[in-house]
Amino acid sequence: MIRGQCLCGAVKYSYHAPIVETIICHCLDCQKAQGSLFAFNSPIDQQQFVIEQGQSALKEFFYTENKARVFCQHCGSPLYSYRKDLPNVIRLRLGTVSEGNIPAPKQAFFVQHCPDFLSIQLCQE
Ligand SMILES: [Zn+2]
Ligand SMILES: [Zn+2]
Fold it and tell me: Domain of 49?
């Protein structure tokens, strides 16, 4: 069982399946959206994901027409994204997980935008 929340605690969620796949993405959209040098995400089964508290605190931002980025409107924590054309998958922002096992990432994307001072093994050639 995975549990997580936003920074202020208004939004709490649980995930009722194991997290299998984790991904690091250095693309410039992810950097801007997370306010960080990379995003650390997992594609998870939307059916097993439950907002336990704070549904009304969630806001969606569509930078592109197809993809919603969902965040807490009180504290701004990015929580997950979903694509309209992929109905059963959401991409959980793993920095919001507070309980449960997160496997190490096997893939990093857009490593050309990974700064040299970050020695993430996945980003080395
Ligand atoms: Zn919050
Ligand atoms: Zn990205």
Answer: 2-123
Could you read off the pLDDT tens digit of each residue along the chain, which spans 125 residues?
Answer: 999 999 999 999 999 999 999 999 999 999 999 999 999 999 999 999 999 999 999 999 999 999 999 999 999 999 999 999 998 999 999 999 999 999 999 999 999 999 888 877 777 76
Number of domains in the chain: 1
Give the Å distance between the CA of 37 and the centre of ligand 2: 10
Distance 122 CA to ligand 1 centre (A): 31
For residue 14, give the 3-state DSSP assignment.
strand
Task: Determine the Cα–Cα distance for residues 67 and 1; give it in Å rounded to an integer.
Answer: 26
Q: Which CATH number do you get for residue 87?
A: 2.170.150.70
CA of 122 to the centre of ligand 2 (A): 15
Report whether 2 contacts 42 (CB < 8 A). no
